[in-house]
Structures are given as structure tokens and as C-alpha cells.
Amino acid sequence: MPIRERIWAGVLVSLVLSGVTACNDDQEQAAKMAEVQRIADEKLKKSEQAAAEKVKGLEKQIEELKTEAARLKSEAEQALGKAQANSEEQAKAAEVALTKAREAYRAEGRAELTALNKQLAELSAKAGKAPAKAKPAIQKTMKDIAKQQQEVGKAIAAFDKAAVDELGTTKAKLVQALAKMKGLIATLKAKVG
């Protein structure tokens, strides 16, 4: 039962009891009523003060919670910003490393191709002095070597688009193309003499 109802119930019970005792003195009854009213007012005032203090306490807690939530949100946003910055830095570093790896593989392939082309140039000079019978076979081998040079060039160019996980496969294809070209040059060397 709410406080006000209890107070008024107390007042009503007091009135009934005072009426039962058949107290004829109106002044005495009025004094008792005034005392009961004063006590009820005091209790009501104390209850209202206690409720107001509780409300103030709750409002203070709400403000503290709002402040804490704002602080936590700010910290989370800062942490997210740092994580994104680190992620972007790592992505850039990975891209730089991939670019360097691609260039290293291309440079290695070009160096091998240059060495093989040098051998081919020396053998071409000797092929011009080869007997007429050997020239058709030498020319066929030279055509095969030219085709293989194109394949090696394609294998080197494949590094431009190769992803990190494809570098090993691309390197293996380049090594295979270079080995085939070396074999054709060895065949030409045997024919030229």
C-alpha cells in the first residue's frame, strides 16, 4: 500500500477510535486531529525527501554511465583506427615485398635468357660455316629456339600478374622454359660441331 494511503488510513482509524470513545470535547478532538495531521505531514515530507534523494542518486549514476559509455566508445574508435592503420601499413609492406620478389624473379630470368642468347649468337656464327647438308636441320633447330625464346619471355612476363601464392608455380614454369631452351641450344651445338 502506498505511503499516502497508509497515512490516510491511519488518520481514518484515529477518527473512528476517537468517535468510539465518545469524546465530546471538540477542542481535544481537534488537537488530536491536528497532531495526527502533523505526524502524517512529517512522514510524507520525509518520504518525499528520501524519494528525491534516490532520484538524485539514480540521475548521478545515469550521468556516470553515460560518461563511461562515451569514454569506452572513444577508446574503441581509437583502437579501431589504429588497427586499420596497422592493417593498411602491413598491406603496403606486403605489396612492396611482392613487387620486389617479382622484380627479382624477372631479373633472374632475364639474366639466364641473356646468357643463353649469347651462346646462341656464337652458335649462329658457326652455323653459317656449317656444311650444306646440315643447314636444314640447323635452321629447324633455330626456329624451335626462336619459339622457345618467346615462351621464356612469356614466362618472365607472367611475374607481373603473379600473386604471392603463384610465385613458386610461375618460377617453376620459367625454369622449365629455360631448361628446354638450354636443351635446344645443346642440340644446335651438337649439329654445328
Overview of the molecule:
With 193 residues, this protein is mainly alpha-helical. The protein has one domain (3-14, 25-192). The protein contains four helices and no strands. Helix 1 (3-20) runs antiparallel to helix 2 (26-127). The longest helix is centred in the middle third of the chain and has 102 residues, at 26-127.
Q: Which word captures the global form?
A: rod-shaped
Number of domains: 1
Order of helices and strands: HHHH
Overall structural class, as computed from helix and strand content, comes to mainly alpha
**What Rg, in angstroms, do the CA atoms define?**
51 Å
List strands and helices in order, with pairings.
Layout: H1 3-20, H2 26-127, H3 135-157, H4 167-192
Helix pairs in contact: 1-2, 2-3, 2-4, 3-4
Short structural description:
The protein is mainly alpha-helical and 193 residues long. The chain contains four helices and no strands. It has one domain.
